Input
Amino acid sequence: MITYDKLYIGGHWTAPVDGELLKICSPHDQSLVGLAAQASPADVDLAVAAARKAFDDGPWPSLPPAERSALVSRFNELHAARSQEIADLVTSENGSASWFTSALQTSLAEQTDAFVRAASGYAWEKRVRTSLGSEAVVRSEPVGVVAAVIPWNAPHQSALVKLIPALLAGCTVILKVSPETSLDGLLLGELFTEAGFPEGVVSILPAGRETSEYLVSHADVDKIAFTGSTAAGRRIAAVAGEQLKRVSLELGGKSASIILEDADVAAVAEGVKYTSFANNGESCVSHTRILAPRSRYEEIVAALATMAEGIKVGDPRDPQTFVGPMVRADQRQRIATYISLGLEEGARLVAGGPGTPEGLETGHYVRPTVFADVDNSMRVAQEEIFGPVLVVIPYQDEDDAVRIANDSPYGLSGGVWTSSEERGLAVARRIRTGTFTVNGAPLSFETPFGGFKASGLGREFGTAGLAQYVEQKTIAL
Output
C-alpha cells in the first residue's frame, strides 16, 4: 500500500490544512491501493502564494531558456526511468489495462522531448524592422501562474502536456489532479524535487470539484489549462471570461470513423479495436460513431460485432486484458444507462449489452457494446458516453458520410478507412475536427492537438502547445 500523507506545495512536502486522507481503491476488486492527502481551499492559497512569489520575485521566469530546458530534460530522464512503476500504479488506481498504461507511459519521454526541441528553436526574442523604417523587439514572455487541472483517465499524459510547456516558458504551475489518481499525481513531486526545480515553481494538489473551482477562480492565477468534460470546460471558460484569465480547454468528443466502400473490412475491425476501445473507451479521442456505407453495412456490422465479442475483459493487470473496469461505480452505472437508452431508442444490439461480464461482479465492469441501425439524431450518437460503446450509422454516399460526421456538437478527433490515401485525405479536409487519421495513422507529439466546437479551445503538443503559455510583447525602438 502506498501512502502520501502530505501535499507537494512549492517544492515542499506539506501536511494538508485539514489533514484529510482519501482511500484509493482498485476499480477491479475494491482492494486498497493507498492513501493520499487531499487539498482544501486553504492549501490552494498556500500553493498559489508560493507560485506567485516564485514568478514575481524568483529567478525562474528570467532564467535563460536553455537552463529551464536542462532541468526539464533531467526531469524527463527521471520520469522515464520509473515508467513501468508509474504505469502499474495508474492501472491500480483507474483500471486502465496494463498494455495501455505501459505503452502510454513509455511514449511520454518523446512527448516531453518534442516540447524541449520546440523550446530550443522558439523565437523567445527577435528584432524586426518595420515598414516605418524603425525597429522593434518582439518578446515571448511567460504568461504567469498557471493552474493545470487534469482528469483521471490518462493522468501523466494530461499532466505533462501542460506542466512541461508551461515550465519551459518560465511559468510557475499548480497541478490539480483528480482524487482517483492522487497517488501517481503526488509521485510526480518526488521527481521534480530530484530534478532540482527551484522553490515555488511546482505544486501538486489532489482535490475534488469544490477545491478545483476555488483554484481556477483564484485572483492570483493568470492562466487555466484544463482537460476534462465539456460541461466543466464551459464553467471554467465562464470563470476565465469574467476575470479575463488566459485559458486553454481540451474537452469531450464524439468522434466519427468513416469507413469507405473500398476499405479492407478485416483491417478496419482490428483498427477500430484500438481507436475506439483503447483505455477502456474512457477517452475523449475515442472513435465512437462508426459510419458504414449501406452497400457493405451488414458485413461491417458483423466484423465489428465479432471484434467486440472477442475482446478480453478483466483484471487490468493481466497482460492479456484489453478492457479493464470503469474507474468508479457511478461511471459504470452511467455507461449502463446509455446501453439501456440505446435499446429504448430502437438501436439493434449486436455485441455486449446490459449486465456485468460473468465472474467480474466485484469490479466496475461493463461489456464492450456495439449498436447497429443507429440514427445520428439518437442520444447514443450525439452524447459522449465515455466508455466502450460504439454505434454504427449507415450512410448513402461520401457527401452523406461527411454530413453525418459533422453533425455533432463536438470536433476533437475522427478518422477515415480507405484503400486510397488520396481519397482519405480529401475526406479528412471536409471534417470539422481538430485531429483526424487516415487508416489509423498515429498522431505526432510535434503537431497541434485540440478541438473544434464544443471540444475545446487552444492546442497542445510541440510548438503550438508551448505558445499557449506565453504572452507577446512588442518593444518599439
